Amino acid sequence: MKKYISILKRTRLFAGVGDDEILSMLGCLQAKLRTYKKGEYVFRQGEHIDNITVLAEGKLHIQSDDYWGNRSIINMIGIGEMFGEAYAAPGSGAILNDVVAVEDSSVIFFDVRRILTVCSSACKFHSTVVQNLFFAISEKNRKLVQKLGHMSKRSTREKLISYLSEQAKYQNSATFTIPFNRQQLADFLSVDRSAMSNELCKMRDEGLITFDKNRFTLN
Predict the structure, then answer these.
(1) pLDDT tens column, 108-139
(2) 194: which of 13, 103, 136, 181 lies 20 to 30 Å off by Cα?
(3) Class of 2-139 per CATH?
């Protein structure tokens, strides 16, 4: 667990907390490390969870499959990102989506009750972590609003332009790499892959964009 201190220090949850303090809090918050092979489920739809989790290694997708196997990618979880907090509070209900490892991954679990309750040892930075949790949830909500902005567009082209423009702004460059392959991007935007690929080619032919795999340039 100690080797992940540098990653935890960069997370929103432990912002402003030093290495030694994080290390001492791991026991207080009953942190547990679990590993998952590519394709394994961290959580399944319908589970009840009582942990806040941070990805220490790998990559995860939050996704949903309907009865016929059509998939929608709700979000991607990268190293240092937190997930599960929306379902960890008492009475919040079962998780609505699957969380799947798309690479071999390591996940750190924190008991949410130990985060929200002042511990007997009165950790100096405990209140900071509680405050950070609130800010992290607010940031997650903002990202969901951004995705809703992409999804609200009527056509496949409009959804692509919205998403690619947002990525260019986020990475502060007209040339950038997105975290999805073609199928994953289609699942994320809830569009047909063939129709999306055709639209990307049209946009390239019109001089709007250039791309190579998941690397794009907005012209």
Answers:
(1) 999 887 777 766 665 667 778 888 888 888 88
(2) 103
(3) mainly beta
